[in-house]
Amino acid sequence: MSKKLTNDVRRMTRPANVAGKLFDVIIAGGGLCGIGAALALKNNPTLKKGERGGFNKILILERRLSPGWEVCSALSTDLGADNTFVTSVLKERLTSMGGLKNNRVDPPMFEFLLNALLEEKNIDILLCAHPMQVTVKGDLVTAIIAGTKSGEMSFGAKIFIDATEEALLWKQTGVPFTDNDPPPAARQAVFFNNIEQEITSPVLPGDFAEAKNIVIRPSVWQKEACAEFDIPSGSISSCRLATFSIISFIREKVPQLKDAIVTHTGFEPLPMDAVSCPNTGAESHPYFRNLFAAGLWAVPDTRKRQRSATLAGRIQIGEKAGMLTSNVRIKPVKPSGAELLSKPATAEADVVVAGGGTAGAIAAIAAARQNANVILIETSTVLGGIGTGGGIHGYCVGAPGGLQDEVDAAVEKVSPVFSGKHSAQGFHPEAKKFALEQMARDAGVQIIYSSLVVGVCEKKGRRIKRVIAATPSGRTVFSAKAFVDCTGDADIAVMAGAPFTIGRESDEVPHCYSQSGGHLDKNGNMEMINFDAGWADPFDAFDLTASRRKGLKCLEQRFPAQNRLLYIAPILGVRQSRQIAGDYRLTLADEILARRFEDCVGFMKTFYENHANDIENQSDEGVLWMWVLGNFFKPIGCEIPYRCMLPKNVEGLLVACRAVSVTMDAHYGFRMMRDLQRIGEAAGIAAAISARLGKTPRQLDVKLVQEQLKKTGALDEKFRPVPLIPENFRNDTSRLAETGEPKDIIYPLAISGKSAVPALLKILETAKPENKFLPAVALAMLKRKEAVRELVKNVVERNPARVQENGAAPRWKSAIVMLGRAGSPEALPALLGVLEDKNADADALIAALRAMGRIKNRKAVPMILKFLKRKDIPQIRKFQVSCAGVAPVEEDVLWQIELAAAEALAALGKPQPSIIRKYLDHPRSYVRRYAAKIKGT
Fold first, then answer.
1. How far is Cα of residue 844 from the mean position of the Cα atoms in its chain?
2. pLDDT score recorded for residue 182
3. Which of 30, 118, 291, 687 has the fewest CB within 10 Å, making it most exposed?
4. What whole-number distance in Å separates Cα of residue 101 and Cα of residue 98?
5. Range list of β-strands (E), 194-280
6. Short-list 730, 816, 802, 815, CA closest to 770
7. pLDDT tens per residue, range 837-848
8. Tell me, what's the pLDDT at 733?
9. For 299-316, how does the pLDDT look when each residue is reduced to its tens digit (9 = 90+)?
């Protein structure tokens, strides 16, 4: 059955727990002001015993993946000597964790603590949710509209607290504000490790260039020091670019740091002041009775406001607002009849690139170099995505060439300034952050950080004209002649109506994600921490929040104080979610056979890098490639057709990210950094030429793009991949007859159709017993019943033999899947034996259940019902670890087994509504989606 394409966003995004709930309090902003307010609301220390206080239902909306961003993202670490109620709690807990020393806090430990406190206090938080607007009715605010990757969502409450850094909600209400002139300075942090002589007291090397108030202080850890300095202009970009020369200055002035390695810098600077609301000077709003302030901007006196810009000062501002709010009683207001208070801002460019990650940063630079006016909208605060902010600072596979080679050369050139006498595994992430920022500035790219595209607000026919984004200043509408979707999940394409698939065909579960961080190896060099933490739906803010919080727990368990992390990556290591349906959909066969395309815009080289430890849920082709043939590390690759970036039903848009038009099996290879950087360059060039010529990307003559790509070296013939299977082997049935073990040609034979059947049947009949398995598999792939007897034999005998290659499974497990493809009732007794086998693991059980459903013989129904009554079903799955010395994450996957059984029973005409209902309310969206899929079949 072919996989159904969908453009129904609602089916994917129903949240598990907080949407539709009327909260007591919603706090916009999860920084220290918001955290202080939430903790004070839950436990107001000023109330006397017996007095009513606190709220049960509190929601924090935070645009980042980390609450307490001042510590966790800006990496400011000085909690100061003040001890208010909340700071006392934080200090006590941090001390017990080993994350506090001399009032300085360790950022990873701080994030672990906040994650735990929110759970303990039953405070809901929605990450990657950008507060945008409020709706009002009379003198009351009724809801906050937040932008997410699912679009705009409305959240209602009795009371609202504006804890945003920018006074986002209050600015919409007509209250006057005074902007800072000049703009406030911001404080940047730089961490040095492996210092030669411990720094025990602050060192003041003096000012340098635009950097003021440079100070080097000891950190929580031995051999680590933190340098902090103020940059007057205060923007993310200016602070990042200034850091490079300041590090060199610090090395020269402070001998202990001369050879130390810079391991991490603030992912964004900490503002030292804010816009002010001079006519307020109170936490209560002058017009709306249920809107309160918890931000620096609510302090009218300039000197007091600047003194409160510390970590403790921000916490105290939030704590004060929370205490005030905890005494307020407001009756809930029905949102009907509510109105918006503000209109969106507008901006215009030739090309708008949404997403500044792996592909997006390259796309924006490439487009700007074609003389296009380019706006780049990035939800995080760094360019480069997983390679810079995601903790995976190294290439796995992929073809070099083109603009990415220029980036790599720039990274190599500046790396010594960051590395000192040490090194970083792969490339230095700080060096790449700097190189991309500098190249984007030189090209003239306008970068808008902390911003997310949340909708397509104007189309002319199928052509996109304008998109709407959540930015730090609220709603903004962006117009462009051409758009490039580098969101990772094809957010713009989906919002515009492009069809797509999600994850695997069997259960729509996407590729595993990782929660990475920085670490030092035993020699003091930087290494990556990369292990799979589970599954995630990155287009769903609720599931993304759950994934981040689970990832933090996994890190905390594996990296306590004695094995501490340098930093926690602020970008989640999501590998896959949606795949658009484009004008062409690249396949695994294309990659294996190194196919060529007339509209080639690049080369990809890879291997079937599948992190799934449940291969039985993959396609039959994937099972053949991995479980049967053990081809995990076999090199494959092909040309990349331009058509893969053109989403069906949409004009004016190129998709250049992991959501490009490829099959799930092809995606396991086509998702690497080099692949995405390559299509980013092609998309950026194509968008710029389209804008200049007044054509849509689909109307564009691809030869114009190819011409430019040849100039940059992206289409250099030396990078062309070669076929894994030579042309003269692909239909060589004589070799099959000679060897009986045709591992190198079994794949093309298995997908070749009827032409290979006679030879396969002959070999199956005449081969030695030990050589019958692979011909039987090939026949099963061709859905021939003649394969069944040999496959059943392997299952019944639990044949442990396997190809001696990476990823191969015992033959008996592979045979289960192939019996399902062959579709013969003759296999049922053997499959029943698997369900009754106390030694069979979850993989074998799921494979057997799926096979029974595919065979479609009702005699399997009582077998499956009997199986579901077992009390000893194995249900723990271990995920993959990609770095040494880290224990694998384990997860209860009973839902996989029970839903596989429910799916099989539904296919056999015996649906099980009780199982479906059980999982339709599961806290994880991918489980709910699988249950809904079965219900709808």
1. 30
2. 77
3. 118
4. 8
5. 212-218, 224-231, 261-265, 270-271
6. 802
7. 999 999 999 999
8. 56
9. 988 888 888 999 999 999
- Identify the residue whose tokens are 């190809």: 803
By the 8 A CB rule, do 296 and 273 touch? yes
Q: What's the pLDDT score for residue 734? A: 56
What is the rounded distance in angstroms from the CA atom of residue 845 to the CA atom of residue 873? Answer: 9
Q: Which residues pair with 162 in a beta bridge?
A: 28, 293
Can you give the pLDDT at residue 175? 87
Comparing CA positions, the residue from 740, 698, 248 lying closest to residue 689 is: 698
pLDDT value for 727: 62
According to the model, what pLDDT value does residue 731 have? 55
* Tokens describing residue 642: 């331009």
Distance CA 541, CA 60 (A): 13
Using a 10 angstrom Cβ sphere, with 0-12 exposed, 13-18 middle and 19 or more buried, the burial of residue 329 is exposed
Tell me which residues of the chain have a pLDDT lower than 70.
1-20, 44-54, 279-282, 336-338, 726-744, 937
**Residue-level pLDDT at 82:** 82
pLDDT at 739: 45
CA distance 815 to 800: 11
pLDDT at residue 728, as a whole number: 58
Residue 211 is classified by DSSP as B
Residue 931 to residue 911: CA distance in whole angstroms:
12
Task: Write out the H or E segment, with its range, that includes residue 159.
Answer: strand 151-162
The DSSP element (H or E) to which 892 belongs, if any, is strand 890-892
Placement of tokens 């995990």 in the chain: 632
CB 189, CB 285: distance < 8 Å:
no
Q: Are 410 and 249 in contact, with CB atoms under 8 Å apart?
A: no
Q: Which pTM value belongs to this model?
A: 0.95
Half-sphere exposure of 484 (CA within 13 A, CB side): 42
Beta strands per DSSP E along 287-432: 291-293, 339-340, 345-354, 374-377
Q: DSSP letters of 402-457?
A: THHHHHHHHHHHHHHHHHTTS-BSSS-HHHHHHHHHHHHHHHT-EEE-S-EEEEEE
